[in-house]
Amino acid sequence: MAAPLLEIRNLHASVGEREILKGVDLTINAGEVHAIMGKNGSGKSTLAQVIAGRETYEVTQGEVLYKGVNLLERSAEERAREGVFLAFQYPVEIPGVSTSYFLKAAVNAIRKHRGDDELDAGAFLSMVRERMALLKMDKSFMNRAVNEGFSGGEKKRNEIFQMAVINPTLALMDETDSGLDVDALKTVAEGAASLRTPDNAILVVTHYERLLQYIVPDFVHVMLDGRIVMSGGKDLAVRVDTEGYDWVEREARQLA
Amino acid sequence: MTQLAEQKGAHLSNFARIGEQDARGGNGASRPPAWLGALRKAGIARFDEVGFPSGRDEHWRHTNFAPIARTAFRLAPEVAGDAIADAAAAYGFGGEAAAELVFVNGRYAAKLSTPGRLPRGARALSLAEAIDSGEELVERHLGRGADIDANPFVALNSGFVRDGAFVHLPRGAALDLPIHLLFLSTNAGGEPTVSHPRVLIVAEDGASASVVETYAGSGGGVYFTNAVTEIACAPGARVDHNKLQQESPDAFHVATAHARLDHDAVFVSHSGTIGAKLTRNDLNVVLAGPHAEATLNGLVLIGDQQHADNHTLLDHAAPECPSYELYKHVLEGRATGVFKGKILVRPAAQKTDSKQTSKTLLLSDEAAMNSMPALEIYADDVKCTHGSTTGPVDESMVFYIRSRGVSLEAARHLLSYAFAADITRRIKVEPVRRRLEEYMAARHGLPQDLRITDLGRHDEQHRT
Predict the structure, then answer these.
(1) 8 A C-beta contact, residue B266 and residue B321
(2) Within a domain: residue B436?
(3) pTM
(4) What is the CATH T-level fold of the domain A6-255, as seen in this structure?
(5) For chain B, what is the domain count?
(6) Which chain B residues are Cβ-neighbours of A91 within 8 angstroms?
(7) Is pLDDT at B42 greater than 90 in this prediction?
(8) SS3 sequence, A122-159?
(9) Facing residue for B397 by CB, picked from A52, A94, A143
(10) Domain boundaries, chain A
(11) Which of B401, B419, B462 shows the shortest C-beta gap to A149?
(12) What ipTM was estimated for this complex?
């Protein structure tokens, strides 16, 4: 059997004195979709950001192997070029930089890393046009400054659009469902789900089971106070959605 | 002690010298008309009286003028146009200007200039020629805006008014292409030199044009440009004034501009500061008639030990005038920036709507910015807002860009460029915009051929 795509062992991470991840273990194989659920402050978004290389968090213990290589030694941009993608919970507005330029810079940085030729403007445009249709995006979108003045839903849609253009090996979707109405959720989630292949994997961080109806997970994990305390199949997400987290906390305490 | 070292005398000697020349009628100059002689005398007398500004004066205290005051500048000599033809070509606009007047060390260089034939009787010519030909408009307007009593540098400049540019836009004249006034300084001799260029722009009823003043150095050396520009906008006139300052690294650049807007006139100023060791710009705009409108945009891109000080005044003297102001600084190295934006709303100026914003990007820990709004409001029904931000590149933006595979360095460059391009994309005169953007791209190692921020209509609607 092939080595796992992502292997996290006993991962601890802090901001300043405050420890947020307190020993996370998680293995993701190519072709799998994993969901991480948990209350606010459980550390699930932190986990996604640490994998993506956010320097706000200091990893104090443990390791993260991606394709067998220590990911923690790589910069955020190196991780991205190797195929790690973070769909942000709060996408950042970048006034003055057009979405078109931004995406082209990203695509070409990744292509260059792989030894491919950079795309010229025409090739880039025909490549993105198809992905825009997938996410039902307006043409004017490419000429707008990155996320500037976008509604919450537009920002989330833009994240998944970027994911579709960049076509990552490991996609981390951080609360992509928050702030979306039912129709937008469907478009975004179906768009993301359509990117599934046997060679890539998706880690979905979410509060709600709704998103997982479209991106059906192979594994669901529940995080509590910086650790994964329970793992199961998609039924676990349904139970969390209907019953909340209290029972998880009780069972986790009994196990501890 | 400062007084002891001040080289005021050098300027007084310079004045005496050109006085002798004029009296002889030598050096190609004809005797000045009486009104001009009076203006010069009043100017130099005022300068003699007050000297250079000191740190005790509120209006001047944010810049140390001692390096200018303590240098014995002699008047920049006339230079044969050929010697500087390459620089003139490099900074020139070629076919992108309706007329291009080139000045070398403050004197008109006919050989390097292409005055062109302007439509509808519009004219752009050397100020010396306009004075010699007894141009009545020059006599009527010169010295009316810029105040020798309020500003020692204006006083000094006025003592030396002899050349520069005169732009006349008669009633209804409308120019598609800009008029370019290119002021080149060259100091081959090594001794510090000074020039006092003067620009007068008279736009009559409903006339409209873009005028660009470029200041650039060729061959380095220490020199001092002390420029004064006066702009008179008649009712309904529209002047898009652009100033691009790319002086040599050891240069001193002091420029005072004064614009007076009659009712329904529109004045737009784009000021770009890149060069000179020390820059001080004063831009005073009087909204003298109802429904006049002023937009002042400034971009300062400096590093090393450069210092740039922009003082602007929006003088609302009439009711129902809007004014918009946006100044952006990108400071690297140990550069220091000063922005003081004063909005004066006089009692008559009810329904004034004025918005001022100053934003600064600090790219090093040693760079420093001093941004000061100053609102003086004497009318009760007005809307005046101001805002100021100063800080480093936003790290959450940097991470967002890096998370897409773009390097840390490229992310920072991209954000600095975008920050500044917020100003350049408002510039209507293509060669000015291009020159600033190319400069930014080169400085930040970005590709030259990408106008990354040329955003669509949606964007324009949402941010004016």
Answers:
(1) no
(2) yes
(3) 0.86
(4) Rossmann fold (3.40.50)
(5) 2
(6) 400
(7) yes
(8) HHHHHHHHHHHHHCCCCHHHHHCEECCCCCHHHHHHHH
(9) A94
(10) 6-255
(11) B462
(12) 0.95
